[in-house]
Amino acid sequence: MSTLLIVIIFLALVFDYINGFHDAANSIATIVSTKVLTPFQAVVWAAFFNFVAFFIFTDHAIANTIAKTVQSEFITLPVVLSGIIAAIIWNLLTWWYGIPSSSSHTLIGGFAGAAIAHAINMKGFIGISEIIYDKKVIQIVMFILLAPLIGMFMSIIITIITVNRNVWLRIGIIIVATIGTVMLFNHFQQVKIGDNLAKFYEVGDLKEAAKTNPAIQKKLEHAQYNLTEAKKIAQDYNKVGGAEITNRIIAAGLVDDVVYTRLKTMVGNVYMLDSLEKKAAKDPIYQPLVDSLNQITNKAVPALRLYPSRPNEEVADSVALALNMNTSDKKALLAGLNTFNTKAALEKQIVKADNRVLRYGFIGLAIIFILAYIYVDVIREPNALRTAGMFKKLQLISSAAFSISHGGNDAQKVMGIIAAALVAEGQIADLKDMPNWVPLACYSAIALGTMSGGWKIIKTMGTKITKVTPLEGVVAETSGAITLFVTEQMGIPVSTTHTITGAIMGVGATKRLSAVRWGVTINLLWAWLLTIPVSAVLAALIFYFVHFILGL
After folding, report:
1. What is the largest CA-CA distance in the chain?
2. How large is the average pLDDT for residues 292-312?
């Protein structure tokens, strides 16, 4: 691992830490302003649940989106470094002036801006779509407006339900809404299982390769057939679990091609073929060597057919004999065979789409609300004081849910940047190979940052937009949490700041439109819209400084 990569990882975690205290106000502003918890208690509470998200979010869909915002050709360590430095600067500036801007969009803008500067330096002025995945960026930009609107809409609906005087109607609506939400998340799970299976079969890569190489078409069609059949088997996931689904897919012979392709790749990597292919993509001088090594590894295919019916030592001996391998290369191949486990890789891709924890969480949340309403409105005689006390207690739960969604949403963005740097350095081949220490470090950093607090922004979020009561705090946090959970499942990196701001505006607007200080809101909107372009320009300037002055 190079010194520059270590510096990038360190700065990325610094950014994650800053993101924590920058966005701490989003998690605790309402619970502090309603005096349910003191500021110190609130940051400890929020930080704890930021870290709990590490155990809940395993698919890392947002990290994948961030890592693949920029075309891989233009992702280099100086690009990642420049993007992170720009993001840190903008985050600190907005924190200092108490502006609740989006840390997420700061990071995305910085990454894209540095990549564009690098592309211009390499090839001159070319189309933006050749540098960044414009569909992903357009989607992210759209949610600058959609995220607060969704948060606002949900908070208005939940407020109307909550203030309804008929307790049984209220409970009925909660039950119907919970069933609908659980069904929606079950749908998300099946979609993500399909997406993860597509990654396992490398359908996307084969489609790209088939555009320039017609010989790949037959392989692509076979992979698509295997994918279709595997997705049919995966429909029973909730009934039998990931291990059984994996066994059924393997028993159906749907992974045989993948096994031999990856075994052949393993042989090629003994000769550093993967690294040479990346170099050849940037410099044609390496292509003849790549072609030569491909011809050599093709000779290994008959010998690899012994796997897995024979011991790994026999397979390694056969391949070594076919390719005339020296002793050290044979040892490297045997080491790879000993750790090669297609079944484990397939099961991991399937299981990481599992969102049953979230579904059970929604059911548990609904049960808590229903029991609270029954206790206050049916068992005990309802009065304003008792209702206010109930909502103060419920706010502990809603703020915990929001902190979990905040941690799961924002920590993944830094994971995506670190993964992009690891790929650029050649430490890993793809995001799916991301080592476990990356998510652990990112969730820890954002939790520690939240512990540090962000008191300047709390004032804006908790008092300047609208005055928030315990009931409204519960509504805003619940609305924000649901919005973030949904967008995380969709793999869309939205802003926690935008979402909770929209939710707070929604609860204010249900009282009366004048309860929301729209002047403050318009100023926030300008900050949101400027974040990506300002971060991009700042990152581009930093890239040129890094490139021309420091020579990186």
Report:
1. 86
2. 83
194: amino acid identity, one letter? G
C-alpha distance from residue 40 to each of 47, 50, 328, 450, 467 (Å): 11, 15, 58, 11, 21
Sorted by sequence, the CB contacts under 8 Å of residue 89 that are 6+ apart come out as 538
The stretch 229-248 carries a mean pLDDT of 94
Q: What is the pLDDT of residues 424-455, one digit of tens each?
A: 887 887 777 788 899 999 999 988 888 776 55
247 burial level (CB within 10 Å; 0-12, 13-18, 19+): middle
Q: How far is it, in rounded angstroms, from Cα 517 to Cα 505?
A: 9
DSSP-derived secondary structure for 410-461: HHHHHHHHHHHHHHHHTS-SSGGG--THHHHHHHHHHHHHHHH--HHHHHII
Whether 400 and 30 have beta carbons less than 8 Å apart is answered as no
Residue 410, token pair as written in the block: 């924002």
Q: How far apart are CA 4 and CA 509, in angstroms?
A: 49
Q: pTM score, two decimals? A: 0.82
3-state secondary structure of 70: strand
In degrees and rounded to multiples of 5, residue 310 shows phi and psi of -120, 160
Which DSSP string do the residues of 511-530 spell out, in sequence order? H-GGGS-HHHHHHHHHHHHH
Amino acid at 44: V
**Rounded (5°) CA angle 220-259-253:** 75
Determine the distance from the C-alpha atom of residue 379 to the mean position of all C-alpha atoms in its chain, rounded to a whole number. 44
For 82, 155, 259, 417, 444, the CA distances from 22, given in Å and listed in that order, are 20, 23, 46, 19, 15
> What distance in Å separates the CA atoms of residue 269 and residue 101, rounded to the nearest whole number?
44
CA–CA separation, 49 and 385 (whole Å): 29
